[in-house]
Design a protein that fits this description.
Blueprint: E1 15-19, E2 22-30, E3 36-42, E4 47-49, E5 57-59, E6 65-68, E7 70-74, E8 78-85, E9 93-100, E10 105-108, E11 113-115, H1 120-123, E12 130-132, E13 152-155, H2 190-195, H3 197-202, E14 207-210, E15 214-216, E16 224-230, H4 237-249, E17 253-256, H5 268-276
Parallel strand pairs: 13-14, 14-17
Antiparallel strand pairs: 1-2, 2-8, 3-6, 3-9, 4-5, 7-8, 9-10, 9-12, 10-11, 15-16
Length: 281
Amino acid sequence: MNFTTVLHQAKSEYAYAYNENTLHIRLKTERGAVRKVELLALDPFNWVPRNDGSMMYDLDKESIIRLEMRKEQMTEMYDCWFAEAGNLDTKRCKYCFVIETEKEKYIMGCHDRIPYKEDESELYNLFNYFNYPYICKEDLYKAPHWVAHTVWYQIFPERFCNGTPGDGRNVLPWGSEEMDGALKKFGGNLEGIIEKLDYIQKAGFTGIYLTPIFKATSSHKYDTIDYFIIDPEFGTNEIFEKLVKEAHQRGIRIMLDAVFNHCGYQHPFWQDVLMYNGIVI
């Protein structure tokens, strides 16, 4: 079996908390190569005494959840398998997969892929199990009720519409091929989005998803300098407030891409690192 075509990663889009006691777990395998996938899941701290007078404890094998995974969809290259591991009252989980082809059967864990046999030392070797340490209530994703019914229109503000073409900003003529790169700017801004709200509404959209609009150097604004200031090339905080109000009057919601997982070179946090060279003072 070619395990380079088997895809899974713990605590990712392949394994996430659905609610306070349930994990959704997915696996991808080469299309048509696998006949059956079984998920083994358990609380890794669920050990029981031997009751033989000793102080020894053994893994409670009776508590192991065994679920046959369902093939929920197929792509050109992959079969996509799904299982819901529920009733995880302790909110802890370790798991592995038993993958079966027409001729072979394997235990697939986080470290090793082992030919399957009823050998408990291999089947219940928790060191080879994927780990979901704990389901934290605070980490659960709860989408607002209106999201499922929203039709989104994504806007890259710098390339959408220049609503103030005579304001003296140093930008290229719209559509110019004079230069290229992240500093190429045509002058799209928030006023341009406000100008086009009626057009967006008539097209049937009820939500606008904006790529980053906070202060940054580039045209794409993913290199944030200040998360509390609208980039001056796009407008001001007050103009953004106007955009939100005008959009809401038309039944359109606004969603921002805030990119908090990284910042730009000029952000004070990174400049502080450069200034002190990582020295804690």
